[in-house]
Amino acid sequence: MHVLEEGTNAMDVNLAVLFIAGIIAASLGSLVGAGGGFLLIPLLLFLLPSNTSAGIIGGMSLSLALTNGLISSVGYRKQRRIHYKWGLIFASGSITGAIIGATVVQFISRDIYQIIFGTILILLTLYLLVRPAPQTGSSSTTADEGAPPPRIVPGVLLGLPIGFIAGLVGIGGGIVLVPAIVYAFRFVPHIATATSVFTIIFTSLAAILVRTITLNLEAHLIGIMVVVAGALIGGRIGPVLSQKISGQWLMRVLSVALGITGATLTMRGLGVITM
Predict the structure, then answer these.
(1) Residues near 140 by Cβ (< 8 Å), separated by ≥ 6?
(2) Rama region for 31: left / alpha / beta (φ>0; ψ in -120 to 50; rest)
(3) Which of 12, 174, 178, 209 falls between 20 and 30 A from 166, CA-CA?
(4) What does the alpha-carbon distance between residue 71 and residue 185 come to, in Å, rounded to a whole number?
(5) Per-residue pLDDT tens for 104-131?
(6) Nearest Cα residue to 162 out of 110, 206, 115
């Protein structure tokens, strides 16, 4: 099913599919502290023709991540879960990494892109499965209660590689940032997810600006706008659901989603499956 032809008018897009995908990806993404690209990208890889570049696919996904980060941050702000100091520290490193990653992606083929993205997700899944469950606070835990005192150097150093991965594969970076700060920095999962979606705003914006300069994103503007419209709805759903789900379940949802997505993309890139 060809939804979008690279370099053509995006009126050929199956708008209903993209809109629904935007809602689902944004709602589940914001629930686990991600922009939703880890769910949207596999769908785009399935729907878009083989000549659609990795850069274009990532650009559409980053538009979702940016919108989701903005909308979800509003909801999490009301719940007092965003640790702004930590978020800005992470963003200080992730912006630079995202710029580098978004520049490199134009030299990577689509098959290699799928293998890289899928492998990253599988490694994260394995890490989450072998690590013991983190200590979890209640859904009412605030940012100051659920995070350690800010540390600039470790935070920036963590942000750099996460930003690079985000810019390279076209995601906000939350699927990497959340488990990293939960296990390495001992964040309460609910605070980690909220702080992550705040950080995504800066990471995805930097990567989008680079891709706008280096790629022909304008040709797909309608498709991007429809995905963004879905994110405007989905981004409001995640923060509401997070109040009803425990931190342990948040990490379980994240690990299952990562594993299924990673395995599918890696097999597609290797040519094991062709769907």
Answers:
(1) none
(2) alpha
(3) 12
(4) 26
(5) 887 888 788 888 888 878 887 887 676 6
(6) 206
Q: What is the largest CA-CA distance in the chain?
A: 51
The answer to whether residue 4 sits within a structural domain is no
Total structural domains in the chain?
Answer: 1
3 in any annotated domain: no
Residues 6+ apart with CB under 8 A from 73: 82, 194, 197, 198, 201
Q: What are the pLDDT digits (tens) for 189-236?
A: 888 888 999 999 999 999 999 888 877 776 677 778 888 888 888 888
Taken as a whole, the chain contains a residue count of 275
Nearest residue to 73 (alpha-carbon basis) of 118, 30, 23, 18: 30
Alpha-carbon distance 35 to 217, whole Å? 19
Nearest CA among 206, 207, 177 for reference residue 193: 177
Helices (H), the chain: 15-31, 37-47, 54-78, 84-104, 110-130, 152-169, 174-183, 189-214, 221-242, 247-270
Range of the domain at 104: 10-270
Contacts for 229 with CB less than 8 Å, ≥ 6 apart: 19, 22
